[in-house]
């Protein structure tokens, strides 16, 4: 049937996914501080693989075809490195600042689409990039004004790089969501990330301490639910709607950062977030609606 999603539901589903993912960010930040980002991402991926894999096997799903496998592997590699860098940086900077810098991803995706898909870059996208770059400079000015530590600066750089990789994974997610359903997307993302990270586990990770095990399981559940909701949304909703929904993460990050870690949102972060969001809005304001996608019931 045609996946024609009512407007309120098209907003509510990804917004719920973002809220759930933000809670997972808070859990993962705590785990990354305690045991390192590598261990936190590795064991969350393995727990997520066990969770999604159990459902996949119970439903007797078929193994995906060669084209889908290539998409799963490609996106898993980009998403895995992006997630690893993001949580490494998140352990060193406030949540609101980290999430603000990820807002660059929808804008960067426009330029990556031009390189990968041959799409024409519009003037609005260039103007939006300039405005958003101003937002990044404002946040950088905040780092200088606050005389941030080297660790904090490196964390900020890691998150910016993670945003570039996340933008690439968004392009692949749009293709992936059309070739596979949310369960398959979620399962193979965890499978690829977990497999790659296991290669470095003997040197970069160890078994999680028992007190961390419930938190890892909780993060895996949250991540699995969020991933399935976002994959469902990317198969149905327009790109510009989803880009707008992403910005709700700033509110959750600011609230959770304050309640869980006692972090306060600085004026520089708020101003930078406003400029980055404005840049993204300018860049996508005249984008034509995405075509309807045929999806199985």
From TrEMBL:
Transmembrane region(s): 7-24, 36-57, 69-90, 96-117, 124-141, 153-173, 185-204, 216-234, 241-261, 267-284
Pfam families membership: EamA
Domain EamA: 18-140, 154-284
First-listed, main subcellular location of the protein, grouped into a coarse class: membrane
Any one GO CC term of the record: membrane
Cellular localization per UniProt: Membrane
Keywords linked to the UniProt accession: Membrane, Transmembrane, Transmembrane helix
Membrane topology: Multi-pass membrane protein
Family from the record: Belongs to the drug/metabolite transporter (DMT) superfamily. 10 TMS drug/metabolite exporter (DME) (TC 2.A.7.3) family.
Name of the featured protein: DMT family transporter
């Amino acid at each position: 049937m045609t996946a024609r999603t009512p407007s309120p539901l098209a907003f509510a589903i990804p917004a719920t996914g973002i809220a759930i993912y933000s809670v997972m960010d808070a859990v993962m930040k705590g785990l990354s501080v305690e045991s390192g980002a590598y261990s936190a991402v590795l064991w969350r991926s393995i727990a997520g693989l066990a969770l999604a894999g159990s459902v996949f096997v119970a439903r007797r799903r078929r193994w995906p075809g060669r084209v889908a496998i290539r998409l799963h592997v490609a996106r898993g590699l980009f998403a895995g490195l992006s997630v690893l860098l993001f949580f490494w940086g998140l352990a060193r900077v406030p949540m609101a600042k980290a999430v603000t810098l990820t807002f660059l991803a929808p804008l960067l995706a426009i330029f990556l689409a031009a390189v990968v898909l041959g799409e024409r870059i519009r003037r609005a996208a260039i103007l939006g990039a300039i405005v958003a770059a101003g937002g990044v400079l404002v946040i950088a000015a905040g780092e200088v004004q606050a005389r941030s530590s080297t660790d904090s600066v490196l964390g900020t750089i890691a998150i910016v790089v993670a945003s570039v990789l996340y933008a690439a994974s968004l392009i692949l997610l749009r293709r992936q969501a059309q070739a596979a359903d949310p369960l398959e997307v979620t399962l193979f993302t965890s499978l690829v990330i977990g497999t790659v990270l296991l290669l470095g586990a003997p040197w970069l990770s160890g078994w999680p301490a028992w007190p961390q095990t419930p938190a890892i399981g909780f993060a895996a559940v949250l991540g699995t639910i969020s991933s399935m909701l976002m994959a469902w949304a990317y198969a149905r909703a327009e790109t510009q709607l989803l880009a707008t929904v992403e910005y709700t993460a700033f509110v959750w990050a600011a609230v959770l950062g304050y309640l869980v870690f006692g972090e306060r949102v600085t004026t520089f972060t708020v101003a930078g977030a406003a400029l980055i969001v404005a840049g993204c809005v300018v860049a996508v304001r005249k984008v034509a609606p995405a075509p309807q996608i045929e999806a199985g019931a």
